[in-house]
């Protein structure tokens, strides 16, 4: 349990500065020493592939025999190793494969190219499985990359993603230790790494940050990215200085595919699915083409496309403890991804590449609601009301990125550089909601059953088919809301990295430095029109009379809502109301003030310029690898926005445009150590500094001040990023039969933690408000800390006897605990401690697989513990998402190494999404998705 | 073989792309990108006392965005179902400049025989747009009368349409309390009774005492709305400027209470809203109120008004009422 901050703010500041100075001094000293004692050395370039499949093997460890200094092969299986000219042989290791020792001749000061790729043979115990099904390849690739990495990271290879029934990147990430996800309509959307909210995790594509298509925030909804677009996913939990420093929880990097050989590759999948709640089929397909062309395979082209369409739905009830809502959702979601990589290798040590990625996610949502609003106090000024609303909206998220760069290797220098443009936008071309309202004489709601509430209307139980609430002629038109939004975010980036190998005494080492600039543009605009009806009786569809729901009902009918526990009638058909609107504008009155206020208060534009530079070194001292360095990042933000004021009578008084800017800098020292206990066992430790920028919606000082309500919400231009010092310790043992046992602890001390503060003032920004107003504003100043334990185990149990040797286990568990100090919600002058929002105490995965010849079967459980999703006005109003276990199953049958069929069965136990307020007995939401399934073929020609 | 696979794979990819690019748009979109200006009547119904000789009906643009049109509009109208002949005296709008109000007339044509006519809504030379609102002044026969006024169509080259309501029904007021009544308060005790009923919904009234008033309280019952004016002893200088002529007069200050009312069979119900003033002297909240009363009409032109109960949104349960003491006043028809 964490009682108080490990270090005070002053101590942390001194710690950071001291660490940075030490690292700089170390870099300078080492480089000077190296210059004095540098022997003659040369660069060895080669490629590691599977002897049978000829597939490249990423993450292979290559080192001089009897030395611990080495290099790791990249995703293309290629490596560059600087060794002394005395070296006569190198050794290549790869988990699940037999070690290879290769004799070489190294010429001092020159590049030695290994003409033939180094072919590695799978260890005998796995050979048959690899050849026939390839199911182990993904796991092997991931573990080898993880093992050879300098820092603490988890890697999910594409083949491994395919072993779980995870259609998008967020769902694939939930299988990684210490990672949980927030779901939307049952599908994973946002990723939380190590118990920190999504804004603490940096999302990149090919090493460059992805702009967020959503307004106001930085984090990216990962359900927009199809999982089969990627070669692998890396989750870095301890940053190195050559990485962007704005990631406190972790950094997720999505890596696209590259053409591997002159042999054309054609692979893909065709999948059909079924969603039980809507009883509709869905469709998915992917196709990947790749080939290297020309003499020596200099030109590589890889094209990848995928399309996924699914009908989804959910049945939901929710409450604020007074009003009851019944929500019936129907959605159509599509995901389309197109990516390409064109690379040209001038020779073995000079390469240019151009990577593109385009992802398009659409979400058409239709939401039908009953809202029961009881007149709890029996006020003569109010009545028992039932609202009927239908929302229909299309949301399109487009994320695209273009990376142009090069890599050059010289005997004594490595250089890489890149310019990139990435763009994301969320376009909501239409967002319509139509509401009708009815009044009843009596309405009472009973929440005594926390699973399903019940209600009575005019003396009849809600299960009574003659209940008045089921009569659509009861409901009169209330309002039509129509609008659209457009959020835009774009990054332009330029960077370079230079690596210089050197020798320190007998130790091989590398010094690396580089710089990066990123220019961001972000904006949001909203159109919102609210119309009332002033035209009296209506004539529509051959009937005339009052503007009641029965004339405009239609759309989807759900006769089994919440498994038949509640009866619902067809709701408003928005198309019919819009048809009426278009033909009868004379009767619809636009609420002009509301439109002006809403559009002004939410719209903004911003630019963010980031300049960064770093220096680091890596030294191999026998079995100990030390990596240290420091990174400097400076950020300048400029923005335009509007202030919206309401007068004492609640009327819109004034809208004033405004502009501002903010600037901040960070020095981020980072030290990593990796000690090789034996060939398959590493001990890792890291102390790193990082930070997390505030969301734009928090920093842009948009004001909305309602003098009538004495309330105001304002942005905070002085808001500082959350800074963190992270301590990590991890032990990992890799099994020769493909597997890993790992365990580690981490501790994060967060400074300037951001929370919503309330305060009262009678003036703001020099404006005399004439009354005391309670403001809500994001503020810094409070501290938070978080500690955790991660344990992971995965192994193919091929050592077991008989039929059991086909078993495989994939399991991990993470425990986290956190404390954040915020302003006391009962007493503005005091403080109180809370858990960090998003932090879940227990988190885990357990997956059991069985390989029987050509058949692979896997059942997977994902456990996500309860967490605070929203901090309320008091402890009793904190909103918690309940713990949830999802059970999925998948089976694959390989006809050959070219064709496989598979089936997936997800959310088998129909686990609901459940939310409670304050305490577990006060359930305020239960949403059910039922199960869904997919079946398809995968081919790899 | 590979070539064939690549060929069909390419076709499949293009097909997939085309399917994917087909957006999942709605079947029908709201056509509201350039929402039109809507010319509407200010009310659907109205009326005045039977002896009224004129009545003004306002026509205006509903809430709009941007600048009003700068092109003229011809409004076609019809007066129908009139129980007695009704004429139009003038069509006017007000233009304000330097704190002075100028009345400007609009051209109109009206054919009493057919009951139809037109109004030429012209661009004001100073505003350089159409006026935001204007008034049709009807000449009434000074008898009980009913008629219907309807805007039948518009001729406009700008983005302006005829909005709802476009039909107005006039009917002479015929309820028991219609018109103006005088309540004479002659004693401090009587004023305190009056205050006990109305001060909870008038912060100004709660701050004065008997010595501050003239004793005259005017109750004016119009079309569905009524107004109470408490005339104070304190005077103020009132300056009015119309058509370039400024007049300054000394008038008694007045405290006003406004409400909608329903009257039927000796029962009177007032409904309105009142402001809650905070310690800082500013409006803190606005609450609806209901005042229940009874009345009896006397032969001598007076009426007895018995106030029964006053509640608002925060004080409506039994024992919590703002007023429930039953006080009675005699009011006299003016």
Automatic annotation (TrEMBL), chain B:
Top-level taxon of origin: Bacteria
PROSITE patterns: PROKAR_LIPOPROTEIN
Signal peptide region: 1-22
Keywords, comma-separated and alphabetical: Signal
Protein name: DUF4625 domain-containing protein
Lineage of the species this protein comes from: Bacteria, Pseudomonadati, Bacteroidota, Cytophagia, Cytophagales
């Amino acid at each position: 349990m964490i009682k108080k901050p490990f270090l005070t703010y002053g101590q942390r500041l001194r710690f950071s500065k001291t660490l940075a100075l030490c690292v700089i001094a170390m870099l300078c000293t080492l480089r000077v020493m190296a210059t004095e004692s540098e022997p003659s050395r040369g660069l060895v370039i080669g490629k590691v592939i599977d002897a049978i499949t000829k597939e490249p093997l990423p993450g292979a460890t290559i080192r001089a025999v009897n030395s611990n200094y080495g290099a790791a092969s990249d995703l293309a299986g290629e490596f560059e190793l600087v060794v002394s000219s005395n070296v006569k042989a190198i050794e290549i290791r790869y988990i699940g494969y037999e070690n290879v020792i290769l004799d070489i001749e190294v010429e001092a000061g020159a590049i030695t190219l290994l003409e033939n790729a180094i072919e590695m043979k799978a260890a005998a115990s796995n050979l048959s499985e690899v050849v026939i099904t390839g199911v182990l390849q993904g796991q092997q690739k991931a573990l080898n990359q993880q093992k050879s990495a300098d820092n603490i990271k988890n890697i999910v290879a594409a083949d491994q993603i395919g072993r779980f029934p995870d259609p998008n990147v967020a769902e694939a990430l939930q299988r990684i230790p210490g990672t949980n996800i927030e779901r939307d309509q049952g599908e994973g959307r946002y990723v939380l790494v190590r118990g920190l909210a999504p804004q603490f995790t940096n999302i990149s594509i090919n090493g460059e940050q992805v702009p967020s298509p959503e307004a106001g925030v930085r984090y990216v909804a990962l359900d927009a990215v199809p999982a089969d677009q990627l070669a692998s996913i890396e989750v870095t939990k301890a940053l190195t200085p050559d990485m962007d420093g704005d990631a406190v929880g972790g950094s997720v990097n999505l890596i696209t595919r590259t053409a591997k050989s002159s042999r054309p590759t054609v692979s893909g999948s065709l999948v059909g699915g079924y969603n039980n709640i809507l009883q509709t089929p869905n469709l998915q397909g992917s196709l990947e083409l790749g080939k290297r062309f020309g003499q020596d395979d200099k030109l590589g082209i890889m094209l990848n496309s995928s399309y996924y369409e699914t009908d989804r739905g959910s049945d939901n009830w929710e409450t604020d403890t007074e009003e009851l809502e019944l929500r019936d959702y129907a959605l159509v979601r599509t995901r389309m991804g197109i990516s390409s990589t064109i690379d040209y290798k001038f020779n073995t040590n000079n390469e240019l590449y151009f990577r593109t990625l385009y992802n398009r996610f659409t979400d058409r949502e239709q939401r039908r609601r009953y809202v029961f609003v009881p007149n709890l106090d029996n006020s003569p000024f109010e009545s028992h009301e039932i609202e009927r609303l239908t929302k229909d909206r299309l949301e399109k998220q487009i994320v695209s990125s273009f990376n142009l760069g090069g890599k050059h290797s010289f005997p004594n220098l490595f250089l890489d550089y890149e310019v990139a443009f990435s763009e994301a936008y969320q376009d909501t071309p239409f967002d319509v909601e139509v509401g009708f309202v009815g009044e009843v004489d009596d309405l009472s709601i009973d929440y005594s059953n926390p699973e399903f509430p019940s209600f009575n209307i005019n003396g009849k139980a809600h299960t009574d088919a003659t209940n008045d609430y089921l009569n659509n002629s009861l409901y009169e038109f209330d309002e039509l809301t129509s609008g659209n939004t457009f959020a835009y975010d774009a990054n332009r980036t330029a960077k370079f990295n230079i690596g210089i190998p050197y020798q320190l005494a007998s130790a091989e080492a590398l010094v690396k430095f580089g710089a990066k600039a990123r220019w961001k543009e972000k904006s949001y605009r909203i159109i919102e029109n609210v119309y009332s009806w002033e035209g009296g009786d209506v004539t529509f569809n051959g009937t005339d009379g009052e503007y009641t729901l029965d004339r405009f009902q239609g759309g989807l009918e759900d006769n089994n809502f919440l498994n038949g526990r509640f009866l619902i009638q067809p709701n408003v058909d928005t198309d019919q109301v819009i048809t009426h609107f278009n033909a009868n504008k004379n009767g619809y009155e636009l609420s002009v003030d509301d439109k002006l206020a809403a559009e002004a208060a939410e719209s903004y534009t911003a630019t963010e310029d980031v300049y960064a530079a770093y220096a680091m070194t890596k030294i191999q001292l026998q079995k100990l690898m030390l990596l240290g360095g420091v990174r400097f990042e400076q950020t300048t933000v400029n923005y335009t926005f509007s202030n919206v004021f309401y007068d004492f009578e609640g009327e819109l008084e004034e809208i004033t445009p405004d502009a501002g800017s903010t600037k901040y800098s960070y020095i981020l020292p980072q030290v990593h150590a990796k000690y090789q206990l034996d060939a398959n066992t590493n001990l890792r430790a890291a102390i790193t500094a990082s930070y997390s920028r505030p969301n734009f919606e928090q920093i842009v000082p948009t004001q909305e001040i309602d003098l009538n309500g004495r309330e105001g919400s304002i942005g905070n231009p002085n808001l500082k990023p959350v800074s963190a010092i992270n301590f990590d310790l991890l032990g990992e043992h890799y099994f020769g039969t493909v597997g890993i046992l790992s365990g580690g602890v981490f501790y994060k001390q967060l400074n300037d933690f951001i929370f919503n503060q309330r305060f009262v003032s009678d003036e703001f920004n020099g404006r005399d408000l004439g009354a005391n107003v309670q403001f809500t504003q994001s503020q810094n100043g409070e501290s938070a800390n978080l500690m955790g334990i991660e344990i992971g185990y995965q192994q193919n149990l091929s050592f077991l006897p008989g039929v059991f040797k086909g078993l495989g286990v994939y399991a991990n568990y993470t425990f986290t605990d956190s404390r954040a100090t915020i302003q006391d919600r009962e007493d503005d002058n005091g403080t109180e401690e809370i858990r960090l929002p998003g932090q879940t105490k227990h988190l885990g995965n357990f997956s059991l697989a069985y390989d029987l010849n050509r058949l692979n079967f896997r059942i997977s459980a994902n456990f996500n513990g309860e967490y605070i999703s929203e901090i309320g006005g008091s402890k009793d109003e904190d909103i918690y998402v309940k713990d949830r276990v999802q059970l999925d199953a998948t089976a694959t049958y390989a006809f050959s190494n070219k064709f496989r069929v598979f089936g997936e069965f997800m959310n088998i136990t129909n686990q609901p999404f459940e939310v409670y307020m304050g305490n577990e007995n006060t359930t305020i939401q239960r949403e059910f998705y039922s199960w869904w399934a997919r079946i398809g073929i995968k081919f790899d020609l | 073989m590979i070539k064939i696979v690549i060929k069909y794979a390419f076709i499949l990819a293009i097909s997939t792309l085309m399917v994917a690019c087909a957006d999942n748009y709605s079947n029908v979109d709201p056509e509201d990108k350039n929402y039109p200006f809507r010319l509407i009547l200010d009310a659907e119904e109205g009326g005045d006392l039977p002896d009224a000789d004129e009545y003004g009906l306002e026509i205006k643009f509903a809430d709009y965005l941007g600048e009003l049109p700068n092109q003229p509009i011809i409004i076609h109208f019809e007066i129908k179902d009139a129980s007695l002949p009704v004429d139009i005296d003038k069509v006017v709008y007000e233009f304000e400049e330097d704190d002075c109000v100028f009345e400007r007339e609009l051209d109109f044509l009206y054919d009493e025989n057919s009951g139809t006519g037109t109004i030429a809504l012209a661009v004001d030379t100073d505003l350089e747009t159409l006026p935001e609102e204007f008034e049709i002044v009807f000449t009434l026969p000074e008898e009980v009368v009913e008629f219907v006024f309807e805007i039948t169509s518009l001729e406009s080259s700008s983005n302006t349409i005829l909005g709802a309501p476009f039909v107005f029904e006039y009917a002479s007021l015929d309820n028991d309390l219609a018109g103006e009544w005088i309540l004479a308060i002659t004693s401090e005790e009587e004023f305190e009774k009056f205050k006990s009923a109305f001060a909870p919904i008038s912060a100004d009234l709660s701050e004065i005492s008997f010595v501050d008033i003239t004793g005259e309280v005017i109750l004016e019952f119009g079309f569905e709305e009524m107004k109470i004016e408490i005339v104070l002893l304190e005077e103020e200088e009132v300056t009015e400027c119309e058509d370039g002529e400024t007049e300054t007069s000394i008038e008694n200050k007045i405290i006003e209470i406004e409400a909608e009312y329903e009257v039927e069979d000796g029962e009177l119900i007032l409904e309105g809203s009142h402001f809650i003033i905070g310690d800082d002297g500013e409006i803190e909240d606005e609450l609806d109120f209901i005042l229940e009363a009874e009345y009896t009409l006397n032969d001598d032109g007076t009426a007895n008004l018995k106030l029964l109960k006053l509640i608002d949104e925060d004080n409506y349960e039994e024992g919590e009422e703002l007023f429930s003491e039953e006080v009675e006043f005699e009011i006299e028809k003016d």
